[in-house]
Amino acid sequence: xxxxxxxxxxVAALRLALPATSAGIYLNAGTCGPLPVETAAAxxxxxxxxxxxxRASPDTYYDVLQRMEEARASIAAxxxxxxxxxxxxxxxxxxxxxxVWGIDWRPGDxxxxxxxxxxxxxxxxxxxxxxxLGIELDLVDVGYGADxxxxxxxxxxxxxxxxxxxxxxxxxxxxxxxxxxAEIAELAHARGAxxxxxxxxxxxxxxxxxxxxxxxxxxxAGQKWLLGPEGTGALYVAQTALEQIRMTYASFWSFEQQDLxxxxxxxxxxxxxxxxxxxxHSLIVGLARSCGWLSMFVGIAWALERGAALARLxxxxxxxxxxxxxxxxxxxxxxxxxxxxxxxxxxxxxDELSARVFVIARVIEDLDAVRFSVGWFxxxxxxxxxxxxxxxxxxxxxxxxxxxxxxAVLDGP
Length: 413
Description:
The protein is α/β, with parallel strands linked by helices.
């Protein structure tokens, strides 16, 4: 508590650079994080330049290449990867589609994923491959992801001969549980399978070292914990997996023979999976600027440590509140906290939180639960207000809850 309190001045200054944090109690970075002023300014500057000077200059071509390299480098630094192993995408779902469709599937091949744990963005490609190509898709029950031994035991049975791909979330968008990715990678590799990881709720929320984790493919969201604009993302492809994943469309890099330095061969890097057409240049600039701002101005290590501490405190308070059921496992959590309140629907809880103390959060429909995304930019005071109201809701039913105070608006003279 004392350490968090001592950081109040730094947090206050940083929140000024994130205007959305003053719009309410911002607990939904798991959907979209607050956009930094610096990022918005950089995007607006480029958009204005394109408006005034056009987008057809030959110089624009080289400028875009440089901007893309900056974005790759910024992401690579955060996930401890080599820049050559990063491909830019429009979203996590696109990155996972590259992973799934890049495998040379044959009828009878197998893929493994988790039941009631994965996001639709990751599942859609798997279902489509199953239905169109006749592969077997095994949906493994890993519960809420709280029991590490249970998770590994279930996957040990599921990942058997013929399994080509294991696709799992690092952090569940629904329960907030963190899966033991490094151990799963070892298990998958021992059976000859590749591991694709949905890192949408991990990168920028918890420490991620993709090489140490052993992931073959790792999908990254730009708009969530990295605070970038929507329509941005990336895919890490390990060098050992590069030749095992096919290109599924004619990449821009297919026709290039040199990078900006004039030496590397992009088709031998992850860049073979990205195309320049259809990429909004302002979004690329925004992603690079947000990642750079996090790393160099905020301090990624500090941000991860503070966010984790606030999330743990929030989960502990919820778990200790009578009438509240904490779904997120405290022993395997990141920054997402999912919970229920007895006698209340999730939507009713969120409606009250929004109306009474201006909480910005979301509902997990399948679990009929509320999800808080706790970030480093949150303050203890605002979290206390949200938690106090949750406790008040838990002490009442929708029928017995005291009505919200309203202001009478008087007619003028």
